[in-house]
Amino acid sequence: MSTIIKFEEFLGLASFFCYNIGIKLWGPNDGFWLNFWLCLTSINLFLTVFAECIYIIMTIRSDFIVAIMTLSYVSFIVVAYVKWYYLYNYQTERNAFFQRLDALFPHTKSEQESIKLSEYFRLNKLATRGYTITFMVVIWIYNLYTISQRLIYTQLLHVHIERVLPYQAMYPWDWRDNWTYYVIYVTQGFAGFHATCAQIAYDLLLCILSIQLIMHYDHISRSLEGYQTKFAEVHGIDINNGLPPLTCAAVELRAVKEDIKLISNIVSYHNELLSLSMSLNKLFGMPLFVNFFTSSAIICFLSFQMSVTREVDLLMKLAVFLFFSVMQVYLICHFGQLLSDASTNVASAAYFQDWSYADVRFQKMTILVAQRAQEAAALKATNFITISLDTMTVIMQISYKFFTVLRTMYAD
């Protein structure tokens, strides 16, 4: 690792998307223009989702399929608003969390090499960039699809088609044949983009902080399992050979002190990580619960739409949205599983550590670490859902049940 990596570098993309919705990720949300942008973007998003809700109410009986499609957009925006709310209103708690995590972060080159920071930084870049690119492709496909379709038909094929908005909504005037069409189109495009920014910022932040905790748990595991006690080293040689009894006792006491110092630091380090894991769940618990609940609905709505649609271009559009929705759930569940595994691996490392040849005080403290690590420090969507790869299976099952209900309603 040639250069020293800073903690802020992990937060790069999440911080960028927070700025796009008028929120400073780390530090006070001061500045007139930042707050002005926050108000402007949130009001525009509210007006857009309100118009979509009116459309659903007015067309649910006459055009059930399109209403269901619009409902998936509304569900997406609801999750974005919840995440937006928590990003803005929990700044104090988030800043305190960052400060505690930064205090644990390795700042020197030797510390970063010891903790293998470069590996986790590569994982961070892979996850955040891959997720961002996928999300951006989805939102701009939806934002530009209708206007691109109209340009192709009118300019290339010379076939007249009526103007259509990227997201179905109802407004109290006829916007199809005047300049307000372009204004509404742009505002809907910005609304979709800013809802996406809120989603990306929150999801990336969750993954970034999970990677940080995983890195520290793995470091504890390696430190414990690879450590040979000084007490064992001392008794591995014949310290009584030619040495006075008092000198032998002093050598043994010094070895015990070094062992106790190391295990005490590990206990303190592990306690802080467990506390940070609990704080992480307080910051992300409720938004995750809403996210999983609405993701089940979105996957259901999109699957239903695909099952009754015969237009190839619309099918591809729906497939892209469905792929992203599944990917979003998988990403969160994947890092939840990694965090759970990393925290419980500490117990295994403590067990396999060669503690049988250590001082009794070292043994007791090692047992304490193992006992605390047996309960996984998992991500939790409130107290109802512990996030792991099994959670994804549950969500897909719930989505399928909703899907069968919708199909039955549509058939009747």
From TrEMBL:
<feature type="transmembrane region" description="Helical">
    <location>
        <begin position="32"/>
        <end position="57"/>
    </location>
</feature>
<comment type="similarity">
    <text>Belongs to the insect chemoreceptor superfamily. Heteromeric odorant receptor channel (TC 1.A.69) family.</text>
</comment>
<keyword id="KW-0472">Membrane</keyword>
<keyword id="KW-0807">Transducer</keyword>
<dbReference type="InterPro" id="IPR004117">
    <property type="entry name" value="7tm6_olfct_rcpt"/>
</dbReference>
<keyword id="KW-0716">Sensory transduction</keyword>
<dbReference type="Pfam" id="PF02949">
    <property type="entry name" value="7tm_6"/>
</dbReference>
<keyword id="KW-0812">Transmembrane</keyword>
<dbReference type="GO" id="GO:0005549">
    <property type="term" value="F:odorant binding"/>
</dbReference>
<feature type="transmembrane region" description="Helical">
    <location>
        <begin position="64"/>
        <end position="86"/>
    </location>
</feature>
<keyword id="KW-1133">Transmembrane helix</keyword>
<protein>
    <recommendedName>
        <fullName>Odorant receptor</fullName>
    </recommendedName>
</protein>
<feature type="transmembrane region" description="Helical">
    <location>
        <begin position="314"/>
        <end position="333"/>
    </location>
</feature>
<feature type="transmembrane region" description="Helical">
    <location>
        <begin position="7"/>
        <end position="26"/>
    </location>
</feature>
<dbReference type="GO" id="GO:0007165">
    <property type="term" value="P:signal transduction"/>
</dbReference>
<comment type="subunit">
    <text>Interacts with Orco. Complexes exist early in the endomembrane system in olfactory sensory neurons (OSNs), coupling these complexes to the conserved ciliary trafficking pathway.</text>
</comment>
<keyword id="KW-0552">Olfaction</keyword>
<keyword id="KW-0675">Receptor</keyword>
<keyword id="KW-1003">Cell membrane</keyword>
<feature type="transmembrane region" description="Helical">
    <location>
        <begin position="288"/>
        <end position="308"/>
    </location>
</feature>
<feature type="transmembrane region" description="Helical">
    <location>
        <begin position="126"/>
        <end position="145"/>
    </location>
</feature>
<dbReference type="GO" id="GO:0005886">
    <property type="term" value="C:plasma membrane"/>
</dbReference>
<dbReference type="GO" id="GO:0004984">
    <property type="term" value="F:olfactory receptor activity"/>
</dbReference>
